[in-house]
Amino acid sequence: MIVLLLTYIAYLAISLILMKRYKADKKEKIALCTISLIGSVLWFSILLGHPLDLNALIGWLIETMF
After folding, report:
1. Distance in angstroms (rounded) separating the CA atoms of residues 26 and 60
2. Which of 28, 32, 46, 55 would be a feasible disulfide site paired with 24, CB 3.0-4.6 Å?
3. Where does the sequence pass through the membrane (predicted)?
């Protein structure tokens, strides 16, 4: 579980650093953080034994943001 948390934090930090370096739009950064957060909630729910179905929420988020 600790390795999963550290991997998630490292992925998010590296992604945000690269997005800042390439001057990504604010919407793109928000979308990355939101989708990453939803993905981490989904993985943690699976690991805890209570899986969630978030496909509709992710689809709605992508359609709304872009």
Report:
1. 19
2. 28
3. 6-23, 30-50
Q: How many CA atoms lie within 13 A of 32 on its CB side?
A: 18
Residue 58 pLDDT greater than 80, yes or no: no
Length of the chain as a residue count = 66
CA distances to 16, 33, 57, 60, 63 from 9, rounded to whole Å, are 11, 11, 22, 25, 26
Q: Which position has the token pair 């370096």?
A: 21
d(CA 64, CA 59) in angstroms, rounded, equals: 9
Structure tokens at 3: 């390795």
Return the HEC string of the chain.
CHHHHHHHHHHHHHHHHHHHHCCCCHHHHHHHHHHHHHHHHHHHHHHHCCCCCCHHHHHHHHHHHC
